[in-house]
Amino acid sequence: MSATVEIDEENGNSSSPALTHNIGNSNMGSADSANLNPLTYPIVPGNNSYEKWHLLHVTDMGTSTKINNIQVWRTGALGTNAQHLTNVRTGSYGGAAAYTTPTAATSSVATQAMPTSSPGSANLGIGGSLGGSITAPGYSDFLVHQIQTAKNALAGNITTLNYQYDETT
Amino acid sequence: MGITHLCGKCGKKFASEQAYLKHVCPTTGFSPAEPKHFELAYKVISEKTLPKGKKVVLSEKIIYEAVKKASRKRQDNV
Questions:
Q1: Residue A66: how many CB atoms within 10 A of its CB?
Q2: Count of CB atoms situated within 10 Å of the CB of A16
Q3: So what's the pLDDT on residue B42?
Q4: Is the CB of residue A55 less than 8 Å from the CB of residue A62?
Q5: What percent of chain A has pLDDT over 90?
Q6: In Å, how far is A92's CA from the nearest CA of chain B?
Q7: Averaged over B56-65, what is the pLDDT?
Q8: CA–CA min distance B74, chain A (Å)
Q9: Does A159 lie at the interface with B, CB-CB under 8 angstroms?
Q10: ipTM, 2 decimals?
Q11: Which one of B4, B9, B13 has the shortest CB-CB distance to A22?
Q12: Spatial CB neighbours of A104, under 8 Å, sequence gap ≥ 6
């Protein structure tokens, strides 16, 4: 049996955060909330979304012995004059980002363009390293991402966030 | 204060990760350590699970994109 993996999202003040397990979407908006409704919390053109802090969470290893080589990318184009920024990268990895209260100010953690195709090698680390692996139920490093818009940004695109990993049995 | 854990399916709050992992989710009927806990979401997004003959509602945008794509293909073939 393969490993059981879910995507989690951390929200709230860093002194008393809440971790929502097995989120249903990664809707970006003007609230620090998991599974938010973008119609209720739209991003006003010229503003940023709140940062998203996601984790890949292995809840059960099944018969697998190792999970590694996590790759994250987005498919689908954003609306005009919007950018999708993240902390993931295939080189000069900054280590595991420590959770801080999500902000709608310009992120100091999500500073790289989100890849729009498979990066070809790990871009999200485990234990602070792109070469890291999960061998017992546990978490990846945080994937941090944010949408930043200009005043003339156009609303409304739906895109897909892709997570890929290797699983060794 | 420590971290609060919430189940993304049923919304229940837990004081620990272990408590979350051990709970039987009333929405899915399974615990998060069981693959079946995740099947509901997969079923919702999988077109294959749509009953035969069920009408698929497409947005104007999706139709427009499909028409554009088809037009481009046609031009390429000319």
A1: 15
A2: 10
A3: 46
A4: no
A5: 88
A6: 30
A7: 64
A8: 23
A9: no
A10: 0.89
A11: B9
A12: A30, A47, A48, A49, A50, A51
